[in-house]
Write a structure and sequence with these properties.
By secondary structure, this protein is an alpha/beta fold. The protein has helices at residues 13-30, 47-57, 72-82, 102-110, 128-144, 161-169, 177-184, 212-220, 225-254, 262-295; strands spanning 3-9, 34-40, 61-66, 87-90, 115-123, 153-160, 188-195, 302-306. It is built from ten helices and eight strands. Helix 1 (13-30) packs parallel to helix 2 and helix 9 (225-254) packs antiparallel against helix 10.
């Protein structure tokens, strides 16, 4: 049983040693064959040096350093591409994904599940606004998306080799792993865990809103509902305009005074302008993602490989 651990990192110098200490202790009780792949965006701190020091002591620690900062989603895909394990686990280095959950995930995989995702019971260390935005985002995505994405999950999950192979063959450039795994299918299950706060340092995403771009990828890359919603708003606005025209025509025929003034005009123009801008913005989100896919640029470029 060969296990791969894929860990995207950026400016995590203070977390790497503690992470390795806990992960190695657990993996060595499970299997003698494993690899820990740090998929690293170029970091201005000593993250790379700490990883290389760990590799000098244990050759099962490996490093991918990309040519530029590509972000966590793409770094994760890079790590998956170079992984070789029968089971591959994606997790963060900040220990908010507790290594102690790994045995339960492997146990469910050995029962025959291809995907075992870790589902949070709580989210310590996060602001109430971020929790509200996250909950609303999951509900919105599951309401309109073509796939079901379990709530309170992140990228912390175990995937079988055939699932990883399918992900590596996909051409999407957005890197929304949760959606890609849901799209692939196969047998999936969950393990519950309590999410602790970060061990050291600050998160790389906005502490109040999280990563809106990742959330938007879940909405726009797995559903056309936003375009349908834009069309519906257009028909509603047109219907409102026809109704208003009918009311004014009735007032004119009855000889009644039409209440018309600057506030009414401003409100109507602002309303119509807002609907138009929202519709153009929705189109822009889809067109921008189409543009990214059509260019077919490399998802990542590796500048340094250690252990491959």
């Amino acid at each position: 049983m060969f296990i791969s651990i894929v860990v995207p990192v950026y400016k995590e110098e203070k977390n790497v040693r503690e992470f390795l200490g806990r992960v190695l202790a657990i993996l060595e009780r499970i299997s003698s064959e494993f690899e820990i792949i740090f998929a690293m965006d170029p970091s201005p701190d000593g993250t790379e040096e700490v990883i290389l020091q760990a590799r000098a002591q244990d050759q099962r620690v490996k490093l991918l350093r990309f040519s530029r900062r590509i972000g966590q989603p793409m770094a994760t895909l890079g790590g998956l591409h170079y992984s070789t394990g029968e089971a591959v686990i994606v997790m963060d280095v900040d220990l908010q994904d507790p290594p102690e959950v790994i045995p339960a995930m492997i146990s469910r995989w050995q029962e025959g599940f291809d995907v075992v995702y870790a589902q949070r019971r709580n989210r310590e260390g996060e602001t109430w606004l971020k929790r509200v935005v996250s909950a609303a985002g999951y509900k919105l995505i599951n309401k309109i998306a073509d796939v079901d994405i379990p709530p309170n999950t992140g990228d912390f999950r175990l995937m079988s080799r055939r699932v990883v192979n399918e992900i590596n063959s996909m051409k999407e450039s957005h890197g929304f792993l949760r959606g890609m795994v849901a799209l692939i299918g196969f047998r999936q299950t969950s393990v519950l865990f309590d999410r602790p706060p970060r061990f050291e340092g600050a998160g790389k995403y906005n502490r109040f809103l999280g990563s809106l771009r990742i959330g938007f990828n879940g909405v726009f890359c797995f559903s056309n509902y936003a375009l349908t919603l834009s069309t519906i708003f257009g028909f509603i606005t047109a219907g409102f305009s026809f109704a208003l025209m009918a009311i004014y025509l009735f007032y004119k025929l009855m000889g009644w005074q039409i209440l018309w003034g600057n506030p009414t005009l401003v409100i109507l123009i602002s309303f119509l302008g807002g609907i138009q801008l929202i519709s153009v913005g929705i189109l822009g989100e889809y067109i921008g993602r189409i543009y990214e896919e059509v260019r077919a640029r490399p998802k990542f470029i590796v500048a340094r490989k250690e252990g491959f």
